């Protein structure tokens, strides 16, 4: 059996679901999963389908062309088809903190993440040993005010060389340039160590401590030009009290960060996240 | 616009989704919500559809007959059609604890629950004043070992008289007889004050205290003949510590009980719960 | 047995705990609970003690004077002694939403809250019937731009008349004046329907929806002159998804609001909250 | 400054707190943290103190003797004094699952755990490479029905050789013998992959799936002779739905397991856990 995933996004109108499911059926496909959502305010339609076809008769390119002609054009759809056969290539950017990197790599090693990790990029040499112990190439590209443009060009070159599909910022402590962001729209996943929109920017645990909150959080989101304001993929929280110091906040936060980030990575690789209007639709 | 909800359950096979959506489309209906689930172990298919039809042309009875002939028979479906126009009638059974009753009635009053509450039945007179202040008939039917059969017959008589659709046991401290349960299969919602399957039966907070658990819970489930073993609709938990006494467990538990029960009531009235093999499918 | 609660706050120095516990012991008291906290940044010491004395020999006034002379003056303490015999008087302010009021009054009725509620004040007549059904005086004092000063004077008059100890704003939709706030420092408890500091001010559920957060919250805090910036007593959260409308946010939020507010009320009445530097110490 | 931690447990009686704090004060110590708890049912008193002494004058052995004579004997206390200077030695037992081991070792590497890990013991060779990459000796001791006694003797020999203080079973899939358990009472920490007391024993995720629960959990507890019935140190939960397969339960559970286990390890190493009557007192 060949399994494909189709993501659809268009203005809402009558008959979309019937048309799509009917088309799949006519192509001898079987729908094994369907989820759909309509944003009533925006009158936008979103759908995620998983379909199975018998390998002998199914041809992806033919299917794509037919779908475009018969369905997508009619409803003016944005749509993507993902073929379950190939794993997306994920680059990991890190700085000095190891907890998210360890978490990602140990999941990777245990077969939990349906990705390939062709390289790790860092602005510091500190985590090279970890990369080594997992046999993943580690590129240390220093970033200073003066070398930022150059450094980013080198990053881009590597991302192209390794055919990277999407990027994970695993507590990478540099702000990406518009150029890099523009190359990977909705394909750069960041973990921010606060419950956004509370405490954007630098040192959120310090701010949370100062404000005396009783709960701290972490937020994974797609990176956009507006710092910490991209579409939120996943959030989670943990309780704190007056007895916790800033150091305690940081330690407790680490556990949040790695779990929230790994959930976001999984949702992204399973093609369960769609972006519209700076918000996400996250299918179950 | 006329809105209907269709729930479908049958053995899984190819083409069900396409057939159903196509049928709705041919009847000039528009699908506004679709959710589906396949239990791969049991090869069982579950679907929930919300469809809109223009009032002028739509006739429920005609649609039902057509659906039966064209679709349901073909796939040997169990199916139900719910008409959004009529609110289900919910009976509330209580004993002496007021917290769940207050919670239900204050939500009811605020228009949160899409039900009618034609009557409250209790084995004690204690909560009559609350019922009165919400203008709902309150029937006190004492239950003793000797009068149990009689009492239940009286309950059944009232349930029939008021055309009750489903029953909520809001901390009702009596075990229902098989006869009453058989009259309302998957239509009696209980709240049990533990995280089932831990601590079934009487005095779960005492058992939880004795075991030294760090988290307590509450579970809402459909009542079956096996005490506290019916299909679970919703659960939630709260943290406790060694500093909490049994009385604290009980007070903290109350907040859980009322919220978990009200969530279960909402899911049930929105026709989002399907039961199979003593488990629930709960659509979002 | 006579039980008293002592709250202490002063600059940290050596020997405070030993001095206090020794003093209580010398007065033939038994310490049944002690909790203490030192803010290392501010070098501030906080302590909460519950002590028991035999009724025959204990005299509160004598104890207070002794404590002041022997202990409090020495360490330059801010301190309070609470006598378990008298219940604090709590005024509830409401507008049109009933959920928090119902929740408070049903807990009050069930004996869960260790307070007296001598009156309810509202700027709308809507909830009068609820107050009536719980036999609590309800004062409707309209507040408009022009009558604000007058209205608040009337509120203050009532608060004095009823000897109110502290105020709960149970979704009261007016901003209090500095004058009223100054009369009850750290004695006015508000519930804000967001996870502060995210979404302060008006319509937080709308803002949360617009931002596409995956978790919403509620925050109970003491009211200060800075809107929604007072010391946080308690917070809690619940998950939301893209499928939830603003109306869903509001309904889900209600359950948070009432639980977070009631927890804050309980902590306050149990004298477990101390305020310093716009933050709270919340003893367990 | 020299910091020590004192744990006290005895029958409750008047004046314990005052006596202890006074004693510390007389020895020129400063109490920087005090927490206490009385089990009213059992009339048992528990206390945890952190005190600071100036290094020049403080002698641990002298202090211990004095404390014993003046305080401990009088109140018939069980008590322990922990010297902050030495880190406890923790042995990790594993089988084939790597997630808990990775989690422990990456925290260890990041300086999060205040322990030494002198060795890892396993009944399988699978995780040796991980141990190696963290430079920790790995002993593979096969356990079969026939070799169980021998294998455990070898384990005991190693534990003695390395002066191990306590043992962590990081998803170790063998049941320990009474002999080994007796050597480390309340010093063997296990992680069980269910919300105990629900689903003790083997394959709890399978049982949870079958029962159709809406929440799964993990429990860390001290090992006693009764399987999965030892004193609970920490628990946590995560939500599941009908859409999750057993495999999903297992993956989601892993995140719980590692976090719950690491929290238990931290509490244990910070001497915050006291055991009585098969329950724990966990100080904050």
TrEMBL record, chains A, B, C, D:
Enzyme nomenclature, EC number: 3.5.1.10
Active site (UniProt): 228
Keywords, comma-separated and alphabetical: Hydrolase, One-carbon metabolism, Purine biosynthesis
Catalyzed reactions: (6R)-10-formyltetrahydrofolate + H2O = (6S)-5,6,7,8-tetrahydrofolate + formate + H(+)
InterPro entries named in the record: ACT-like_dom_sf, ACT_dom, Formyl-FH4-Hydrolase_C, Formyl_transf_N, Formyl_transf_N_sf, PurU, PurU_ACT
Pfam families in alphabetical order: ACT, Formyl_trans_N
HAMAP family associated with the record: PurU (MF_01927)
Name of the featured protein: Formyltetrahydrofolate deformylase
Source species: Lutibacter oricola
